[in-house]
User: What shape does this take?
Amino acid sequence: MKLGLVLDGIPVRALGADLLALEVSGLEYDSRRIRPGNLFFAFSGARADGRQFAAQAIERGAAAVVSELEPLVGFEGPWIQTPHGRKALAIACRNFFGPPERDLRLTGVTGT
Assistant: This one.
């Protein structure tokens, strides 16, 4: 799926057409599980700053990095900044995998 479609509905800084045309093969927030073409989401946590692993993700083949913060000094690679990283991941998952309610089946049982 094209990066432009994955990011649909996510507020980001202006991106070039070449970046929006990148092919994304998956979404990941753990740099150790990156596969070529994955979009890496770098979050700040209680113990570590995900930006520290952005370069490793790019080396492993990540298409780009998405984060709420600016890239660390010296980072080389596509960087996408958004105001809300975790919300961006949720929207990207919906765009990439489809709406979860599409496959949801409900059964109601009523009585007295």
